[in-house]
Amino acid sequence: MTGLEIPTRNLMKAKMDAGQLAVGMIVRLMRNVEIAAIAKSAGFDCLYIDLEHCSFSLETVSQISMTAVALGVTPLVRVPGLDKAEISRTLEAGAQGIIVPHLETQAQAEDVVDAAKFQPKGNRSLLGANPHTLFRAGPAAETMEKMNEAALVVGMIESVRAVENAEEIASVDGMDMLLIGTNDLCN
Question: Domain range for residue 178?
Fold first, then answer.
């Protein structure tokens, strides 16, 4: 198959790249796919599914993510931490972006991008047929390039050390956005 089309374009990333405002809602309590329809009906661009502070399973994340994409809502998932395997598995499950808490250094940001992106930007392993391609296989190089374009990588600044290193963290190629974790930062 040539000319693989990635039908699950990251609409939030496209909106932000165009300089437009994108808004999202956090998901911590509701575990059903209906949350994606609620977000769509309320006019949100993304869902922020929280795995750091909630006990969602990866299966739940996958189901919500695939439903959200089908409805035109970008599913972002805050992973529990800096674990490369969790980052990769979360993206493989259908998330269109990851939010990584407690990012404090440029080296950590580089590791996050390495886990979230395929060659040449990172070292993520490719699962051929996946939710992002609607389970169709295509040429690996083309699939990886398009999935790299669609994946949104977000780091959370939540400590004094992270604030001091924010400019260096933001400079990492492939780090798309930084969020301020006000609760942890205030503590």
Answer: 11-186
Distance CA 86, CA 20 (A): 30
CA distance 124 to 45: 26
| Catalytic site residue from 53, 129, 160, 182 | 53
Question: Under a CB-based contact definition with an 8 Å cutoff, are residues 64 and 46 in contact?
Answer: no
Tell the burial category of 83 from Cβ atoms under 10 Å away from its Cβ (0-12, 13-18, 19+). middle
User: Position 159: which residue type?
Assistant: S
In a domain, 2, yes or no: no
**97: in domain:** yes
CATH number for the domain that contains residue 90:
3.20.20.60
CA-to-CA distance for 177 and 170, rounded, in angstroms?
7
Number of domains observed in the structure of the chain = 1
* pLDDT recorded at residue 6: 59
Q: Tell me, yes or no, if 53 is annotated catalytic.
A: yes
Q: How distant, in Å, are the alpha carbons of 16, 27, 78, 148 from that of 137? A: 29, 31, 27, 16
What are the pLDDT digits (tens) for 40-98?
Answer: 999 999 999 999 999 899 999 999 999 999 999 999 999 999 999 999 999 999 999 99
Q: What would the pLDDT profile of 29-45 be if each residue is shown by its tens digit?
A: 778 899 999 999 999 99
Residue 85 within any structural domain of the chain? yes
| 126 CA to centre of own chain | 16
